[in-house]
Amino acid sequence: MVTAPVVELVNVTRSFPGPPEVQALKSVNLRVERGDYLSIVGPSGSGKSTMLNLLGLLDRPSVGEYHLDGTSTSLLDEKQRAIVRGGTIGFVFQSFHLLPHRNVLDNVLLATLYSGVPRAEREDRARAALDRVGLNHRLNFLPGTLSGGERQRVAVARAVVASPELLLADEPTGNLDETTGGEVMDLFEELHADGLTLIVITHDQAVSDRAERRVRITDGRLSELS
Amino acid sequence: MTFFGKRMLRRRSRAAAAPEPVAAVSGTEPATSAELTAPSIVPVIARANRFSVQDLLIEASYGVGARPSRLVMTTLGTVLGIASLVVTIGFAQTAAGQISNQFDAVSATQIMIEPASTRNSSGNEQATGRLPWDSPERVDRLAGVKRAGLVADVDVAGALITSVPVNDPSAAQTLSPAVIATSPGLLAAVRGDVVTGRYFDAGHDERGDRVAVLGARAAETLGINRVDSQPSIFIGEVPYTVIGIIDGVERRANLLDAVIVPLNTARTEFALAAPAELHVQINVGAGTLVARQAPIALDPGAPENFKVQAPAAASSLQDNIQADINIVFLTLGILALLAGGLGIANVTLLSVMERVGEIGLRRALGATKRDIARQFIVESAVIGLLGGLIGSALGVFAVVVVSLLQGWTPILDPFVAIGAALLGTVVGLAAGAYPAVRASNIEPITALRGGT
Q1: Structural domain contains residue B218
Q2: CB-based contact (8 Å) between B6 and chain A?
Q3: SS3 A24
Q4: Which contiguous run of DSSP H or E holds residue A64?
Q5: Which of A30-34, A127-131, B109-113, B319-323 bottoms out in mean pLDDT, i.e. has the lowest?
Q6: Do B38 and A71 touch (CB under 8 A)?
Q7: Contact of B194 with B248, CB cutoff 8 Å
Q8: Which pLDDT score is estimated for B315?
Q9: What is the DSSP-derived secondary structure letter of residue B253?
Q10: B252, B275, B301: which is the final residue of a domain?
Q11: pTM, rounded to two decimals
Q12: Across the interface, which of A58, A95, A195 has its CB nearest the CB of B364?
């Protein structure tokens, strides 16, 4: 049985109306198969953010088609996109985006609120996710009391708790030192080994090099690195 | 590991539901095939697992409770506004109660009944009924009646009233005081005092004795100030013994300018046809009842022949006064409340700006614009409700304390207290509307790239 790729971009262009009009992505084609571990590397201003927003259904292409999990996303309205975002895509951000007044468990549970995880399973799954990232001893800690690496691991747990098809990481090690950044990358590799599809967007060559498959983005154009 | 297993399961079931998703990718007519396959990617979430009102309330309560010190400052405006409204209404109601208590002293405890009258063909007033001579006894038995007395103006056919029988031709002509006939109980019914001597009693009345009581000013005119020597006055040529002088009547003040004789005396001496007015002193609050029953007691066959002047029902009196007081102070309270609402709007807006990252995160986690808007509007409604509850409680407390200190009876409609708390919620809702719209329009992209 032929399975659809998780992500397929067909001639995607994203331009921002000027003047002058800026084309952040130019006729991009990209295919990410299920279980792929892809990195998109490029300097700032190369179109990485736009790429992330498009992939994460936070933005729409000006031209071209984005098929997510085999389905065209251009026909979805805002509400459907929100539901798909909640259920299909997990996000990890450079600055963690943990709620400072909620404990670790609540922060992970937040991702189950909007994504339709069955109510009865929510807490068990959140605990399992935190167990998976090695933080089950920190359940009742506030994010402010955790180290940077621990915070990013909480964010990863939050990203995977709703069982997404795709994990999108935006500069996941940008706020971390080399050691803790390496730990987070190790975690990504473990998740990948479990079958998760991963896209890491970064400017850091070292982070990019850990991916199975690497794509360079320069001036809005993609080029495959072997 | 378990939750990854579940993920695999779910993926398989989704693939089964949409057997040919690839067609959409490579097909030549992506619009139609995409339309067919579009639902497959949008998971159908069971109602029980959606973002529910319960979830909304929990999330909003965290938002409200995140900064307790700021919460206090935010609610302060609403607290003051609501409290001032409750205090205003409470004092208006309490004061109206106080004022009607003062009215009770005279006007609320006095009823006057007279025969109804119509205009006859030549335009003169003509009485359609007449008060029975035993009216006081008839109404005395009614509940709420304390005392009753009859009054009638006596026509003495121009007879002079003097204190000396001698007609001094050189003396200036003086205006004679009026002659009024009353039943023995009238003095009490109109709350007069005897200055000296006594009022005539039932015995004088029955026998038709020629006795007279003088009003204080009439006594002065006639030059009589003591009665122990049993002075006489002359109505025409008939002598009357003065047995007392009265003063201080609350009703029928013209009694003070009159010579007062018993009713029966007036009937025999001056052919008095009928009493003119029945004055009744009643208990507080009995006005409506007595006004209804007295005409029937006076003449069961034709109660419509009597005109009753009863005190206004307490409620209408209160309403009038309340309306006067309320308008001024309500305006102040509403202004305070508006300021409170603006305060909530301001702080909520500030909180939206501070929580841009959180809003972006929630959007990325699958919250719709509506979910975001609802969260912020519920947060500000909760703040408003808190302010309303505290303000309402403070207002009630203030009314009670001040009433205690003044020795008043605190009066406050319980619906005012409840309504004020709800009004706080409404203010919060209104104040949260604009910040909620702002929050829902925040682009997750920009929000997530910014710090925190």
Answers
A1: yes
A2: yes
A3: strand
A4: strand A63-68
A5: B319-323
A6: yes
A7: no
A8: 55
A9: G
A10: B301
A11: 0.64
A12: A58
Residue among B314, B252, B254, B303 nearest B93 (CA)? B314
Give chain B's domain count: 2
Token match 């069961």: residue?
Answer: B300
Q: Which of B29, B35, B40, B42 to mutate to test the interface with A (most CBs of A within 10 A)?
A: B42
CA distances from B172 to B167, B349, B443 (A): 11, 91, 105
B34 CB within 8 Å of a chain A CB = yes
Tell whether A163 lies on the interface with B, counting CB pairs under 8 A. Answer: yes
A105-119, A166-180, B83-97: segment of lowest average pLDDT = B83-97
- Look up residue A146 and give its DSSP letter: S
Residues 37-56 of B with CB under 8 A from A: 37-38, 40-43, 45-46, 48-51, 55
In 3D space, the residue among A113, A131, A189, A46 whose CA is nearest the CA of residue B52 turns out to be A113
CB within 8 Å: B364 and A85? yes
CA distance A191 to A185: 10
pLDDT band at A109 (very low <50, low <70, confident <90, very high): very high
Tens digit of pLDDT for each residue in B60-91?
A: 888 888 888 888 888 888 898 899 888 888 88
What tokens appear for B30 in the block?
Answer: 């992506």
How confident is the model at residue B22, as a pLDDT? 40
What are the structural domain ranges in chain A?
A: 7-225
The confidence score (pLDDT) of residue B378 equals: 93
- Does B147 share its domain with B87? no
The verdict on a CB contact (< 8 Å) between A165 and B25 is: no
Considering only CB atoms, B41 lies closest to which of A49, A68, A102, namely A68
Rounded to whole angstroms, the Cα distance separating B219 from B210 reads 17
Could you tell me if residue B43 is inside a domain?
Answer: no
Do B284 and B178 belong to one domain?
A: yes
pLDDT, tens only, B208-257:
889 999 998 888 888 888 888 888 888 888 889 999 999 888 777 888 88
Would you tell me how many other CB atoms lie within 10 Å of the CB of residue B378?
22
**Stated length of chain B:** 452
- Cβ distance B93 to B413 under 8 Å? yes
| CA-based nearest residue in chain B for residue A130 | B1
Preceding peptide of B414 cis, ω within 30°: no
CATH class assigned to A7-225? alpha beta
Do B451 and A95 count as a contact with CB atoms less than 8 A apart? yes
What percent of chain B clears pLDDT 90, i.e. is strictly above it? 17
* Inter-chain residue contact B364 with A95, CB threshold 8 Å: no
CA distance from start to end of chain B: 30
- What percentage of chain A has pLDDT greater than the value 70? 99
- Output phi, psi for B250, to 5 deg: -90, -30
In a shared domain, residues B136 and B280: yes
- Contact of B7 with A132, CB cutoff 8 Å: no
Nearest Cα to B313, choosing from B100, B98, B93, B140?
B100
User: Cα separation of B431 and B351, whole Å?
Assistant: 13
Closest Cα partner for B149 from B107, B199, B105, B102? B199
Q: Which domain holds residue B403?
A: 51-100+317-449
CA distances for A207 relative to A88, B87, B328, B354, angstroms: 24, 66, 71, 31
Last residue of one domain, picked from the residues B253, B272, B301: B301
Mean pLDDT of chain B: 80
Cα(B390)–Cα(B385) distance, rounded to whole angstroms?
9
Would you say residue B120 lies in a domain? no
Contact A71 B40 (CB under 8 A): yes
- pLDDT given for residue B101 in this prediction: 62
Would you state the pLDDT for residue B37? Answer: 44
